[in-house]
Amino acid sequence: MEVVIKSGYEEISRAGAKVVADVLNTKPNAVLGLATGSTPLGLYKELIRMHKEEGLDFSRVTTFNLDEYVGLRIDHPQSYHHFMHENFFKHVNISSQNIYVPSGSTNNYKAFCEWYEERIKEAGGIDIQILGIGSDGHIAFNEPTSSLSSRTRLKTLAKPTIDDNARFFEDRNEVPIYAITMGVGTILEARQLLLLANGKSKAEAIAASVEGPVTSIYTASALQLHPSSIVFIDDDAASDLKMRDYYDWIQEKKPGAPQT
Ligand code: GLP
Fold first, then answer.
1. Catalytic entry in 67, 68, 117, 127
2. Helix ranges restricted to H, the chain
3. 245 is catalytic
4. Can 143 be counted among the known catalytic residues?
5. Hey, whose CA ends up nearest to atom 12 of ligand 1?
6. Which pLDDT tens digit goes with each residue over 104-162?
7. CATH number, span 2-255
8. pTM of the predicted model, to two decimals?
């Protein structure tokens, strides 16, 4: 796992977007795994800027989103379908038939989850998966004790996650209790993982996931098992890390390393 600490949100967003753009520039028909939440908004904004100003092309790209609430219509302002459309898809030249977001309103969740996994396989697997992190250390909606080999499935959300999400809803009773989410095992199959985090509220989860043991209590700790994962965090999110000097040293010395 590569841990890169930047001075602020803008910097992690720009660095994250650059990694995604590099993938697209070497593989124009790349398969992107996308995340929702406030964290990746800056990264999406930067990708949109690159599309508009530098011609970054999404016409051959396929995307798979990590998760969706159960019970919200796709046009509900808090549905992840709506979020992705408003904050990313409608601003770039992605083809609507290449967009996959889990359904939160199917009448057969089990069959849908199997279908979703099949689509990922059929697309050739995910080239790069963007991730945020919940304050309890979850990735996607893989709440504490989610199996590290779990696949796409229906999950009951943990109370802290429901509390975190309540800020987006007018009425607390409207906050969904269930979600459909890619599993940790599904996520680990992506060729590259890119996790972004900013702010003090993520510091404990980041420290546990980066420096703690691999555990289903913090599902983001599963990134330690992945051969190519990078974590971009700001100073606040890095504030509970014990080995900060080491991560900074590695970044400082990286440009001088032999390339072959
Ligand atoms: C939800 C999403 C996660 C996201 C997390 C953090 O739980 N399912 O994918 O990482 O929120 O959200 P934020 O980036 O708003 O802190």
1. 67
2. 9-26, 41-54, 80-87, 109-122, 159-165, 184-188, 203-211, 244-253
3. no
4. yes
5. 37
6. 999 899 999 999 999 999 999 999 999 999 999 999 999 999 999 999 999 999 999 99
7. 3.40.50.1360
8. 0.97
